[in-house]
Amino acid sequence: MKYLLMVLLLGSSVLGYAREQDAAPQRIVALAPHITEMLYAIGAGPQVVAVSDFSDYPQQALTLPRVANFAGVNIEALLALQPDLVIAWRSGTPAADVNRLKQLGLRLAFSDPLSLDDISTELQQLGELTGHADQGARQAAEFATALQQLRADYQQKSPVKVFFAMSVAPLSTVANKAWPQQMLQLCQADNPFANVKGDYPQVGIEQVLQSQPEVIIQASRGGTVADFAYWQRYATLPAVKQQQFISLNADQLYRTTPRTLLGIRQLCQALDLYR
Predict the structure, then answer these.
(1) What pTM did the predictor assign?
(2) Keywords of this protein's UniProt record, alphabetized (predicted)?
(3) Per-residue pLDDT tens for 82-94?
(4) Which of 24, 32, 36, 85 is the most exposed place for a label (fewest CB within 10 A)?
């Protein structure tokens, strides 16, 4: 079986496109849940033949074979599907597996959205790459317009001090360019840890107590409400004293897809209750 070697770069790194003479791929493997979701959003779902673990949206993706997880890519299973395009997650797919795919001569593309605006860019590029340029451009424009409107709606809002709990054991939060931090900034949430070292720093409870957040935010999966029991022992925190907690949908919050808009709206509207 012969493979055509072509490396395409999407996202915030070097941008690339398929050559005009290249036919649209008909057997695509998506190596991250956000890639799967974006491919379906632009109309390329019927071309996807395999995905990674946790690719659970849309529902059609649940029927597809899984060839990757957090530990790496099942190269043998992937090859058996004879893909004509593999789209990897530059920040998440193990480098050793990426190198192996390159050595095998697979047609390879990378997705790596690092900012909210990158979602629009990638929707358009994936559309061009997969033969769905019109729908990709339409989805990109709709996302960009909605994102711009959200920024306009919230840029003059009064800030509210928050603590975003990525986890409580260990206690960690978000900062700098972390995906949730970008959303907090858009919604005019004041994160006292926004500029500490790293995007997902661990912090001490003493630091949180000192920061006195008015709202505590956590995300959960599976349609459940986040468990805020950990915080009840810290009654001196304004958020605990007033029982001001926000539970968010983790998939809408963490996945870089068009559904990110739902996560932003949910966060912003919830914060409006506490301004």
Answers:
(1) 0.89
(2) Signal
(3) 999 999 999 999 9
(4) 24
